[in-house]
Each structure stands twice: as C-alpha cells, then as structure tokens.
Amino acid sequence: MSEKRTQTWVATRIPNLFLLKESGRYYGRVKMEGKSYRKSFETTSFPVAKAALRDWLITFKRPSAEGGRTLGSMVEPWQAWLAGEVLKGEITQSTVETKSQHLDSMRGWTGSTGKSHQGTWPGFDSVKLEALSEDIFAGWLVRQRKAYSASRTNGSVTVLREICDLAVRKKCLTQETWDRAKKGLTFVKVPPNRLKLPEPHQVEQLRQAFYMRCQKAGRLGGWLFDFLLFSGARIASANDVRWEDIHWDRGALYFRTAKRGSYEIPLFRQLRELLENIKAQNPDAKPGDRVLPTKYLVLGPVCDELKIARLSHHDLRHLFATRCIESGVDIPTVSRWLGHRDGGTLAMKTYGHLRQTHSQQQAATVNFLPGATV
Q1: CB 110 within 8 A of CB 170
Q2: What is the average pLDDT value for the chain, to the nearest integer?
Q3: Average of pLDDT values for 177-193?
Q4: Average of pLDDT values for 134-146?
Q5: Is pLDDT at 50 greater than 50 in this prediction?
Q6: Disulfide-capable partner of 252 in 16, 189, 243, 247 (CB 3.0 to 4.6 Å)?
Q7: Could you give the CA distance from residue 297 to residue 108 in angstroms, rounded to a whole number?
Q8: Three-state DSSP class for residue 254
C-alpha cells in the first residue's frame, strides 16, 4: 500500500487564503451555502496570490443577471422609478421633464409634425446591457458633447447612470460589467459661468442662419428659438405651453411647468406676434394642444459657422434677461418674468453687470456736473 500523502495547511493573515506547506503554493478556500470550494493559484508569491484570491472571490459574489436585456427595456422601469421619486418628494415633475429631454437627446424623438430627429446614440434601444463597455460609453460621450453643452451633456450622463444603476438593482446587469463600463461615462468639465453673450447683431445673424437651416430641413425649430428668446422660458416650461395658457384678452402667458412653480409673463409685442403667427398656421389647434412642435434646438453647428461662442437653450434665457435690463426694466421685475421668487437676488447676482459694450455706451451719457462749464 502506498503511504497516504500529508497536507499541512497554514492560514495566512488574509481570510480564505492558505499556504500548502508541502509545496509552498497558495490556495483559496471558501465555503458557500454548505459547499466547500478550493482553488490553487499556482504561485508561491504572497502578493500574487492575494490579488488572485480577490478576483476569485468576486465570482462567488457576482449576482446572476437576466441575459438579453437592452437599454431600451430599462426605460419604462426607469420612468416608473422617477414617478416614485416624485411621490416621495425627492424630485419635482419639472426635473422628470428635464431628464426625459436628456433621454430624447440620446434616443432621438419625433416632433408633433411627424418629423423624426436622430439622437446622439443611434440604436440606443437595442444595445444589450451585457455588451456595455468603457469604449461604448466614451464614444457616445464624444458625440453628445459635440452636439450639446457641457452642462446638458452631464445631465444625459446622469440619466444613463440612473438607468444602469437601476438595471443592476433589478439584476439585469452585473455589478462587475457596470463597474468596468462606467469608467467611460464620466462627467465633463463645465466652463466657468462668465455669462459671455453675443452682441445683438450677432444674435440676429444667428437667428437668420438658424431659420434658414430649419427651412432647408423642413423643420419648425425657428419658432422655438424665438419663443425662448422672447419669453425667457426654460426649455421644459416652453415644451409644456398649451394654447389654453395664452390669455389674449389680458395679454399674459401662463407657464404651468416651471422650476420654482407656475408663473405668468406679459405677452411682449414680439412674443404675441410669434404666437399669432403659429396660431394662424394651426387654426384647428385645440386648447389643450401644445403650442410648439419642436422640443429642442441644436445651435452649436450654426454658432460654429458664425464663429461665435456656442449657445444653449439656457443662454437664450440669459439673452432675454439681459435685453430686458438693458432696455431699462428693473431687476426685480425681470426676476418675476424669469419665474424667480427671491425678489431679484439671483437676477442681481447674475445680471448685475451687463455687457461691456452696453456699459461703456451708458457711461458716455452720464454727466456728474451738468451745470459746470468745464
């Protein structure tokens, strides 16, 4: 009879890592659900064995994931989760609208006229969750940043992270796959908010160039451009304006969806003319129909052509406020027109100093000694 081989196991200071004294090699040993597992790491090096143990133990902790699920399949559960966050008071309905816009910017959308608009991630809905990778996210991030501002891109990054985190919680995506993939889903640096806006003649050039581009493409984006410029509304508020919100008789426009609660603004002359024009082209519109057929603007390429700083939806809101103040409207009033509820504190902080050109023009009109002869 052969002599029985002796095995002497020596526990190390690392749980589940053992040294087989006879061979000098390290092994991993673990007991899960009543079953014992053992694995040789084929090394006599403690640091190498320690790293190998970590990777091996992950295989036991990895949750099983339902295969075959796609990013598109997670949209409805994500929307349900958002609705729950609203009910809990964690976010507002306005935030949900904004997040939905970020999702549309990726998936693409269809306007009320039936025109399809391509997003920055063609085929978003069909991407398999288990196929997500750092390179896939990094490639999308480049496309998104070319089309949208840094802050808007970061909003879309947040939406993707929420969707994938939810997929992990629902065991549709493994934590290990998500941890590797999200390295490519980073937030981009937002430039300092110096409120450097184009001059009035540049805004008019941009408006004309954008209208021409929309006309060539058979789109009505010019209406949204003018609406944001003439009303100072946020994009979410503009998207939710209905015909019943326009009070022609008393010259007021009501915003039902707003960051700080509903508010009203006057029907400024150019705003009224715009709305009358849209109404004339939609004579059968019902009171509950949305006024604007276009959800978003992509101004970056047009700005590049004109060699001016890229503008976002929110920059048109800044232009509205700046033009009002330059026209002599007091800041507390402009603040109310923006839907603020702080009496003008934020507006004063943001618009307290206007364009240098306007400042110099106004300085030339000041005379501190009107009666002096010198």
Answers
A1: no
A2: 84
A3: 83
A4: 92
A5: yes
A6: 247
A7: 13
A8: strand
Torsion of CA 296, 301, 302, 304, to 10 degrees: 140
Helices (H), the chain: 46-61, 75-87, 93-107, 134-147, 150-169, 175-181, 200-217, 221-231, 235-239, 269-280, 300-306, 313-326, 331-337, 345-351, 356-363
**Where do the structural domains in the chain lie, given as residue ranges?**
9-61, 72-184, 200-356
Q: Does position 97 have pLDDT exceeding 60, yes or no? A: yes
Tell me if 60 sits within 8 A of 30, measured CB to CB.
yes
User: CB under 8 Å to 169, separation ≥6 — which residues?
Assistant: none
Percent of residues, the chain, with pLDDT higher than 90: 38
For 324-363, what is each residue's pLDDT tens digit?
888 888 888 988 999 888 777 777 777 765 545 556 666 7
Q: Mark residue 171 as left, alpha or beta (left: phi above 0; alpha: psi -120 to 50; beta: remaining).
A: left
Please choose, from the candidates 68, 112, 145, 38, the residue with its C-alpha nearest in 3D space to the C-alpha of residue 282. 112
C-alpha–C-alpha distance, residues 226 and 217, integer Å? 18
Task: Evaluate if pTM is beyond 0.70.
Answer: no
Domain boundaries 9-61, CATH class? mainly alpha
Distance CA 249, CA 226 (A): 22
To which CATH superfamily is domain 200-356 assigned? Answer: Intergrase catalytic core (1.10.443.10)
